[in-house]
Write a structure and sequence with these properties.
mainly alpha, hpI Integrase, Chain A, 13 helices, globular
Amino acid sequence: MDTLHQHYQSTLESFLNYMLIERNFSANTRESYSNDLKRYLLFMQHNSRAMEQITTHHVEEFIGELYAIGLEASSIARNISAIRSFHKFLVIERALDTNPAENLHQPKKAQYLPSVLTVDETMRLLAVPKALYPPGKYDLRDQAMLELLYATGVRVSELINIRQQSLYLDAGFVRIFGKGSKERLVPVGSSAIEWVKRYQAELRLSLVQRNSDDYLFLNARGIKLSRMALFAMVRKYAIMAGIEKNISPHTFRHTFATHLLEGGADLRAVQEMLGHRSIVTTQIYTHIDRSFIKEVHKTFHPRG
């Protein structure tokens, strides 16, 4: 390992520790910043630039590369925040005199329409695991996870961190700890309640190990599932259901919100269930079903 790479590695590790201890950043934010900065420093290493040699022009070159590979504006904005914070830390530590990323402009976040499953596609996907059980050992757990994703619209990190003590299934609620440890109660429908209870009664006890803690969904080693395991699971069942859309666990969150709003749900109620701080974030879902709006206009407008 060359000296430049070693220096980058040790500096990055110091910054990540600073984020965790001094700034109290969440584990997810720390992981995102870590991945972004590793890519950034690798770019600088390939160009043989020591830390003190990096200029604003060099940082802009890297950001240009992110645009070139088609990274979304929101991801580029996060990269810029990570790079700016990293260099600010080096100035605070007196390793650098100035911050070359201080005056970088944040890209405008593009309004995008997330991938959403139709009701038919959702039902087809939810039908796959239960059709396999038995003999598939984990299909019962997977069924419960998919049902809960669709029933609550929770984020991936929120699902894998649900503990049994947060379930109030007889009352029809689950307690979710979202971004910034913000807590909310989310309603759960009867189908998800049935499958979660079946999973608890018929499978979870056999997965429990000494280090399982109280996490609801466990893997073969008795610990909570990883984000990647959940992603792979969703992709597997989507393929088996014949769904060609490029979907992820987060697709269930978009689908949950869209189906509620198309059914006439109040926007504020959906905002509360999703755990959005701003109603603006939730309003994106009101723009998804353009075909329906077009049909209404065609049917009822005098010049339709």
